[in-house]
Design a protein that fits this description.
The structure is a homodimer. With about 210 residues, chain A is mostly helical. Helices cover about 70% and strands about 0% of the residues of chain A. Chain A is elongated. The structure holds a DNA duplex (30 and 30 nucleotides).
Chain lengths: ~210, ~210
DNA sequence: GCTTGAAATGAACACTTGTTCAGATACTGT
DNA sequence: ACAGTATCTGAACAAGTGTTCATTTCAAGC
């Protein structure tokens, strides 16, 4: 046997990436062998090297594609004018988007150490871009005296960690709908950063 | 050569656990070989099996010991009477304790999938005990009309994720002291769950 | 000082790892 | 119908995997 009937790189290529993504997320990068990926695709291990130069690059490409999708997704969210509403929009987008791509997110937060320095740097830059978008919302709100944030950088990280936490426990068939989770979380985030009414009144008056 | 001069199981044993903890945290369980651990300890791979029946048990023992330390640590925190102060005490304890044991926390949140079902269940029970302690604070505050929480279980998870996030970015030599980070985080947590003054007044009046 | 047992070696086991490649097969364009 | 190329196999490679064990060495108790 050699080439299979109906085989095509447009089919096998995505299959490889899909299988790798799923298996890496489930067992971790180091714990998944090329032969396991190949078996999942329905092909011999050697064939994988038509679609990736090596295992590490396969991981990097998955991570890279994911971060690009996140940034593109956020760019497509039409942002309201008020910082409070912007923050809610961000929180809702983050939760929904990340829930739809659990596997990729899992890998992004766990397997970065398997990358070499250069690849890591590229991904880290993209991640910082995303976090900056949130920080800009906080800064805008701070300047408009709508938010009362001690440190915008720290608060950015805190919010993102909190939102990411949804991944670790949320189950689509669970007690709460995703929409309800989005609502509760964005409410909490809002309360955590919004300025107290009394303080704002004093500031506006003064 | 065989036995080394000055060698003792009271010395090598802890060394093995220490090295395993550090290496697992840095590279991941699957990516670390017994020979790497042995080299780090300064011993041959075979000698490790005097201190653990196998690699998986070594991981499990590390995780188990960590969770026990977390629960013991929390038990030793003397809790104030007011829920607001209790919440702050919890947040401060969580951040400080987890920062002091970064490696163990990293493993706890990343390598659970490498455990078999029985071991996983035992650890999961301990983790739920810890989370329950936080939820009880939220429930108490809720009943005292000091907190305004939509869903105590979800809020518990949200708070813990947020606090855990500190681990991913905090550097002891960075811009902020650990004490300041604790303050900012516990303030944010407090604001996120506390009941608005107006609402509380209305409730007390009504 | 000698025996006893703990602590460690180092070689061996059977298997898996990522990766390469000559050869075989199926599809595509002419 | 045929040539050419894209796709895949299957075997091979050297290195590394977790684990076992007979053997050796050191340290402590009598």
């Amino acid at each position: 046997m050699a080439r299979k009937t109906g085989s095509h790189s447009d089919i096998t290529g995505p299959k490889v990436r899909e299988a790798a993504l799923r298996l890496f997320a489930e067992h971790g990068f180091a714990a998944v062998s090329m032969r396991q990926i190949a078996k999942d695709v329905g092909v011999q291990a050697g064939a994988l090297y038509l679609y990736t130069p090596d295992k590490q690059t396969l991981l990097f490409d998955l991570l890279c594609e994911h971060m690009r999708a996140v940034l593109d997704g956020l760019a497509e969210v039409e942002m309201p004018s008020s910082p409070v509403a912007q923050l809610e929009a961000f929180a809702r987008f983050h939760i929904r988007f990340h829930m739809e791509r659990r596997d990729a997110v899992f890998i992004s937060y766990m397997e970065l150490s398997n990358l070499d320095a250069a690849n890591f740097a590229r991904l880290d830059a993209m991640r910082r871009d995303y976090e900056s978008a949130l920080e800009r919302i906080l800064i805008t709100g701070q300047e408009a005296h709508e938010f009362d944030v001690d440190d915008t950088k720290l608060t950015t990280m805190a919010i993102i960690s909190m939102l990411n936490g949804v991944l670790t426990w949320y189950r689509p068939d669970g007690r709460l709908s995703l929409d309800r989770v989005e609502t509760i979380y964005s409410d909490m985030v809002g309360k955590a950063v919004r300025m107290a009414r009394a303080k704002r009144a004093a500031l506006v008056a003064g």
